[in-house]
């Protein structure tokens, strides 16, 4: 029996609604399999912040370090600054556990209307650098309260960081079409982006088996809208990958579908799995949030933990449910969050028979 201990951070808003549904689905997926999931739920997030003045306790990292993975719902609340939610929870987890790969698969589903003309077929994997780049903590403000007030933010790109994210992206591309696009802006950002281009090209040449195309991020964003089917695997810096992945996810019909994985590929630390959508306070409490992003993130977690066969069955099950139109209102359906989860479980049971 393969036993895995999972830290559960449902977090805020619709995270509290999609998380229990996803856990039910994952438990159903591993039933009668050689896998057992032990869920350790933690009440950290914005509610915790309002009570304690911080997003999670001082010993949170050491508490999570003893588990095999982290399953996150969403964080964010209108009464808590986004700076607090991001830098008080998500970024510390990603950086303390060296989750340097943010992996975001995006694909279209039959029956789900794309926001793009012609509803093109989309199947893209974005490999985003997750712990350095533009989202550094180096910077500051000066001359506050005067007409000369200034703010500065230092982007940090290291050879070590760029090499390892490029190597991971090459491996992903080798397992797919063999085509890799690198997002850049070396015509305008004259130090970090040429460095990014040089190191990515060196890694591709060293690893081999991949055709590299370097594309300016503005042109790449336009291409993602105009011709998303021309994209396969994209490697990008922290900021570029963040924006591009949300753009492509929204193009397939709903950002509520898309999952992501924050990976420490070597397994020295736990990895974290989460849907791309936020806490969505505008619909929180109504029971209509799309649970597919959370469920798909759970499938990515199962694959990372070594249960790729179970993950594949789960992905097949929720794909069948989506393509039958058993979906929440964001996809044009009428089902509740819980009803979509129940439909996925029924599909899993049918496939088990």
Order of helices and strands: EHEHHEHEEEEHEHEHEHEEHHH
Q: Helix/strand-derived class?
A: alpha/beta
How many strand segments? 12
Largest sheet: 10 strands, mixed
**Backbone shape:** globular
By DSSP (H or I, 4+ residues per run), the number of helices equals: 11
Rg, please?
20 Å
- Secondary structure: helix percent: 40-55%
- Percent of residues in β-strands: 15-25%
Order of strands across the main sheet: 2-1-3-12-11-4-5-10-8-9
Low-confidence stretches: none
Terminal Cα separation, in Å? 22 Å
- What value does the average pLDDT take? 94
Description:
The protein is α/β, with parallel strands linked by helices and 353 residues long. Helix content is 41%, strand content 20%. It has eleven helices and twelve strands. The protein has helices at residues 15-30, 46-52, 60-65, 82-96, 159-174, 192-207, 217-226, 238-251, 292-304, 308-323, 337-352; strands at 2-11, 35-41, 69-74, 101-107, 123-129, 139-142, 150-153, 179-184, 211-216, 233-236, 259-263, 271-275. The strands form two sheets. It has a ten-stranded mixed beta sheet, sandwiched between helices. A two-stranded antiparallel ribbon has the order 6-7. Strand 11 (259-263) and strand 12 (271-275) form a beta hairpin. Helix 9 runs antiparallel to helix 10 (308-323) and helix 10 crosses helix 11 (337-352). The radius of gyration is 20 Å and the shape is globular. The mean pLDDT is 94.
């Amino acid at each position: 029996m393969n036993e895995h201990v999972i830290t559960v951070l449902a977090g805020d808003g619709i995270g509290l609604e999609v998380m229990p549904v996803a856990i039910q689905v994952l438990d159903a997926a591993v039933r009668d399999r050689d896998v057992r999931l032990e869920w350790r739920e933690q009440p950290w997030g914005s509610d915790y912040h309002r009570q304690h003045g911080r997003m999670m306790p001082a010993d949170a990292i050491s508490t999570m370090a003893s588990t095999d993975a982290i399953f996150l719902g969403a964080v964010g609340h209108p009464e808590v600054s986004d700076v607090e939610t991001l830098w008080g929870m998500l970024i510390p987890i990603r950086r303390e556990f060296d989750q340097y790969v943010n992996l975001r698969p995006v694909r279209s589903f039959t029956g789900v209307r794309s926001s793009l003309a012609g509803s093109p077929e989309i199947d893209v994997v974005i490999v985003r650098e997750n712990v350095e780049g533009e989202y550094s903590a180096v910077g500051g403000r000066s001359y506050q309260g005067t007409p000369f007030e200034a703010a500065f933010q230092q982007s940090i790109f290291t050879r070590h960081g760029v090499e390892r994210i490029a190597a991971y992206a090459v491996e992903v591309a080798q397992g797919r079409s063999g085509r890799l696009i690198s997002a850049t802006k070396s015509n305008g950002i004259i130090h970090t982006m040429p460095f990014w281009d040089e190191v990515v090209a060196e890694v591709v040449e060293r690893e081999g088996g991949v055709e590299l195309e370097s594309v300016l991020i503005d042109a790449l964003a336009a291409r993602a809208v105009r011709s998303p089917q021309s994209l396969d695997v994209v490697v990008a810096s922290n900021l570029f990958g963040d924006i591009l992945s949300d753009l492509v996810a929204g193009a397939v019909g709903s950002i509520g579908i898309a999952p992501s994985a924050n990976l420490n590929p070597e397994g020295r630390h736990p990895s974290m799995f989460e849907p791309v959508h936020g806490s969505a306070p505008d619909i929180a409490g109504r029971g209509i949030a799309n649970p597919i992003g959370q469920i798909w993130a759970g499938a990515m977690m199962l694959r990372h933990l070594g249960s790729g066969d179970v993950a594949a069955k789960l992905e097949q099950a929720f794909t069948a449910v989506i393509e039958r139109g058993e979906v929440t209102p964001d996809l044009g359906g009428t089902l509740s969050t819980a009803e979509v989860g129940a439909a996925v479980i029924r599909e899993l049971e049918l496939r088990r028979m």
